[in-house]
């Protein structure tokens, strides 16, 4: 192993400071009555594994091949469900954001495209923002008018017994070329008021589930509140201005956050 020193060539120093740059690509296509995966291209820390299909649905697991994202990393996943395809994407373990050898932030960009009559379920394990980490995450989602989407996002701020890192996240969803949702959040010590009573208060885990379904056009869901015990967190389902619903949850830790989100996702929505 070669360590960078003050005598290292400038080009090598620049590459080291930039961190890892990697893009993984997944494409699902409907052929012969089932969904196939003509493109399954892992890169850098992303190792992509086919899982056993369920019915006509293709399933993919993202496995971390190295520790990432670190400060300075630029990571990207692109997933496309072509017409009539059904694609389910999960991950083998939580994503752990850590400080890196450079003060540069890390970036993690997810681009999802879902075509006509296709369905995509994005259900990875949580993101854990370790102390002193700095991550900027974006979700850019393009849906056809008849596409269906289930997307789960979970953030745990700090590992057990440590302060949180910094995370900024933006979720932009377009359906038929029109904006459906544009949401931006920031948590961590660099974001004033993030742990105040109007934001997370004493909670250190937050997440959401976005459900887009053309069936909601005729039967939109009503508002629902999910609370077992107040100290265990709470979640609320709210309809969006379109055939979609958003579940938002806060909890003291990742385990209770997942419990709330699973309850909200599995319970049939009440009609408005």
Quick structural gist:
This protein has 272 residues and is mainly β. The chain has helices spanning 10-18, 254-266; strands spanning 21-31, 34-41, 46-54, 57-64, 74-81, 86-91, 95-97, 106-114, 119-122, 127-129, 134-143, 148-157, 166-175, 178-187, 205-212, 224-226, 234-239, 244-251.
Describe the structure.
- By secondary structure, the chain is mainly β.
- The protein has a domain at 20-201.
- The chain has two helices and 18 strands.
- The protein has helices at 10-18, 254-266, and strands spanning 21-31, 34-41, 46-54, 57-64, 74-81, 86-91, 95-97, 106-114, 119-122, 127-129, 134-143, 148-157, 166-175, 178-187, 205-212, 224-226, 234-239, 244-251.
- The strands form two sheets. Strands 3, 4, 6, 7, 9, 10, 12, 15, 16, 17 and 18 form an eleven-stranded mixed beta sheet that branches. It has a seven-stranded mixed beta sheet with strand order 2-1-5-8-11-13-14, with no helix packed on it.
- Strand 13 (166-175) and strand 14 (178-187) form a beta hairpin.
- The chain is globular.
- The N and C termini lie far apart (62 Å).
- The relative contact order is 0.11.
- GO terms for molecular function: nickel cation binding.
Give the tags.
2 helices, 7-stranded mixed beta sheet, 11-stranded mixed beta sheet, 272 residues, disordered N terminus, globular, 49% strand, 18 strands, mainly beta
């Amino acid at each position: 192993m070669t360590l960078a020193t003050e005598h290292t060539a400038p080009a090598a120093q620049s590459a080291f400071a930039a961190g890892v740059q990697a893009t993984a690509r997944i494409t699902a296509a409907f052929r012969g009555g089932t969904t196939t995966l003509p493109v399954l291209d892992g890169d850098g820390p992303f190792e992509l594994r086919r899982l056993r299909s369920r019915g006509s649905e293709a399933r993919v697991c993202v496995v971390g091949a190295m520790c990432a994202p670190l400060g300075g990393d630029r990571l990207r996943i692109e997933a496309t469900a072509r017409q009539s395809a059904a694609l389910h994407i999960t991950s083998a373990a939580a994503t752990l954001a850590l400080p890196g050898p450079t003060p540069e932030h890390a970036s993690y960009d997810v681009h999802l495209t879902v075509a006509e009559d296709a369905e995509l379920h994005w259900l990875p394990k949580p993101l854990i923002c370790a102390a002193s980490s700095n991550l900027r995450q974006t979700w850019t989602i393009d849906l056809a008018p008849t596409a269906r989407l289930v997307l789960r996002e979970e953030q745990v701020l700090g590992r057990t017994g440590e302060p949180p890192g910094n995370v900024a996240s933006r979720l932009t969803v377009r359906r038929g070329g029109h904006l459906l949702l544009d949401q931006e959040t920031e948590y961590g010590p660099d974001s004033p008021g993030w742990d105040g009573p109007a934001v997370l208060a004493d909670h250190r885990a937050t997440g959401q589930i976005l459900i887009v379904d053309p069936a909601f056009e005729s039967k939109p869901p009503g508002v629902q509140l999910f609370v077992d015990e107040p100290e265990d967190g709470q979640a609320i389902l709210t309809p969006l201005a379109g055939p979609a619903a958003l579940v938002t949850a806060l909890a003291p830790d990742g385990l209770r956050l997942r419990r709330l989100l699973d309850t909200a996702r599995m319970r049939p929505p009440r009609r408005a």
